[in-house]
Amino acid sequence: VPKSCYKPAARAERGGACRALAVISTCAWLTSGPVVLGTASAQTSEPTAMPAAGVTHLGRRTDGQRPLLLPVDLDDDDDDGVADDDQIADVPREDLVELVLQAGDGPVKLVPLGELRVIRRGIAMPTPATLTQDELPVPIFLQARGPSMGGRPLALLVSRGGRTTRVDFHAVELSLLDANNRRLAPERDGLQVSRRVTNDRSLPRTTRYDARSPDPDNVRLQIVDAAGGGKVLTARIESLLPVRDTVRDAIELRLTRPRIGLPFRSPFVRLVSDEVDRHAPGVAGQVLQVGLRDRLRIVYRSDLGEVTQQLRVGRPGDEDGPRAARRARLRAVVMRAYPGGPPVIGVDDASALRIVRDEVAIANEIWLQCGMTFGPPSETAVTITDSPGATLIAVSDGDGLPAAGDGEIRLRVDGRELSPIRTRPEATPMQTALQLEIALEQAGFDAVVTVNPKTVFGAHSGADVLVRRPDGRFVELQPVSGKTLSSDSRQRITVGRVDLGDGLAEFDNMTATGGTLEERTLIKALGDGDPSTIDLFIVNRFTQGTRQGEAFIEGSAGPIVNTVVLDRNGLRQRQTAWTMAHEIGHVLLNHPLHPDNVGPDQPSLLMDADNNRGTVNGPKRLTEAECQRVRRESGVDASPPLLRRHDARPGVP
Ligand SMILES: [Zn+2]
Predict the structure, then answer these.
(1) Tens-place pLDDT, residues 322-345
(2) Ligand 1 center to 452 CA (angstroms)
(3) Looking at residue 343, what DSSP letter applies?
């Protein structure tokens, strides 16, 4: 009942009979029958219309009505970690029935029978309770804490002046059972999308009452309804987006029981995250698509009305358990094919943006298996940009050799010639890079030195100097005409630039941890330098065409971390190779290898390297161990934390 219905009634009570008509018109839409308004109508010369202890529900008198339907309020609608039927204050109203105790002569006494609670102003009232005459009329709410059973009726007795009105209730229990037929507790449990191949044998096809599910994440519906006379009933489960009441997916379930007196049970249901799984062959009616923090709502309709209960996917982000919701931040950089040209994906900037956002949506679906998201695709930061030119100086790229100390470094920066820098005997690449940094800063440029991981064959670690103008724009580095960049007889100086005309030169096993000079130039120039975000670069192709994506992970301890480079073919293979989700997996897992590198081939795994089927058998599954590893390596307590708390409850840090 909307508040507008009983509040005018209260005004009418104070204001006298003439206002009652206005009240009737306010509430009349709720019911086709006569509207009874307690004292208000008594004052309009109908003294017998309302018994002494007047009680209305939806504007109608409750005497002699059929029982009012209630769900046993086992869920946790306000997500506060306390089951609604255990909550003392601020009890959520979703699953309560409202009654209005009408005004009249003398106090009203309330006596609930059975597992029924009386809630007033959100607070569970100690009962029996007495309400004085001047507290009336008043709305109260009834909540069921247990199902109606044959010998266990639920009723509220409302007495005034020696007369008693009895309001009967019928309570049904709607719950989800886990793989072992144990009831899930909404205040403690969260649902988990399956990590198995959707139509494999770990989803029982049987309707057997005591069947168990080999997949621990499958659930089934159980309903206790003492009024359900036969052995079959039906109910619906639906997934609702976390923010609005928008239905994402819904399935009808047929519940059965072997004999009268037992609860009804549905077959097992598998929760999945994408359309391919939702339409997996052979399991129609047993698969429900969900998203992170969706509400799974059970909807049960009987002759007495409709009741619902709900349980959410994952747990609130302020929790620390394996199902607490987490969010990683992605930052995408789409390269232009040539300066000022079109982006390397799509036909224009708008379509490139759309492709990236679609990829983020797919990654969200895949990584839902670990209870995490990359956020709404529309919120992902996407930059479409020209390649950086000659803006990076590499000292001893690859070989890491120290200087002989017998030469000079000669450079022009934006056309200006730097004073020659003499190399020093046995100077490591880093020491030479620091000399360059000082010279560049004295000449008014910004220079940043980074040290690369030592290559397999390197003497020392190589070092790079990224050079910018003071306003942050890139410079153009050139040799001085007629001179080599360095005349040192042992330590080489090279200039890094990105030229995607022939693709991006990819790393090989010798350079894997640090990347090639071209990759380092791209990433050091355009990366955000924040190791707690995942930088995603999209290029046209890799020069040698040996891969469609690569990942720079933290375990390599180089200056480039938590970065993924994808070529446009990697994106074309979306939903077949799930390339982006796979490469991000290397970053989140902080692991460069694939399961099939170190163990038996498991082609349905996301981190498998050699499967590209786009079907339900495609490479998209994560294991529980992988999800645990992500939370350990990249979780909120890791350094840097790639995951943040998602959908934390207000007031909880
Ligand atoms: Zn891989």
Answers:
(1) 999 999 999 999 999 999 999 999
(2) 22
(3) B
Place of tokens 């300066």: 339
- The two three-digit tokens of residue 53, written as one number: 């202890």
Which residue, 581, 591, 596, is CA-closest to 555? Answer: 591
Kind and range of the H or E run holding 164: strand 163-177
Contact 251, 288 (CB under 8 A): yes
Structure tokens at 429: 């690449």
Q: Give bridge partners of residue 101 from the DSSP assignment.
A: 55, 138
pLDDT tens digits, residue range 405-441? 999 999 999 999 999 999 999 999 999 999 999 999 9
Report the distance separating Cα 389 and Cα 387, nearest Å: 6
In the reported structure, the alpha carbon of residue 284 is separated from the centroid of ligand 1 by a whole-number distance in angstroms of 33
Compute the distance from residue 250 Cα to the ligand 1 centre, in Å: 35
DSSP string, 498-550: --GGG-BPPP-TTTTTT--HHHHHHHHHHS---TTSEEEEEES-BTT---SEE
Positions in the chain short of pLDDT 50: 1-52
CA distance linking residue 259 with residue 261, whole number of Å: 6
**Which residues are 567's β-sheet partners?**
539
Taking residue 648's Cβ as centre, other Cβ atoms within 10 Å add up to 15
Q: Ligand 1 center to residue 503 CA distance, Å?
A: 20
Spacing, Cα 603 to ligand 1 middle (Å):
13
Distance 586 CA to ligand 1 centre (A): 7
Quick one: residue 285, left, alpha or beta (phi over 0 = left, psi -120 to 50 = alpha)?
Answer: left
User: Is 332 in contact with 341 (CB distance < 8 Å)?
Assistant: no
Which residues are bridge partners to 342 per DSSP?
Answer: none
CA of 550 to the centre of ligand 1 (A): 7
DSSP helix/strand/coil, 4: helix
591 C-alpha vs ligand 1 centroid, how far in Å?
A: 9
Separation of CA 204 and ligand 1 centre (Å) = 33
**What's the gap in Å between 20 CA and the centre of ligand 1?**
74
- Cα torsion angle, 511, 516, 517, 520, sign: negative
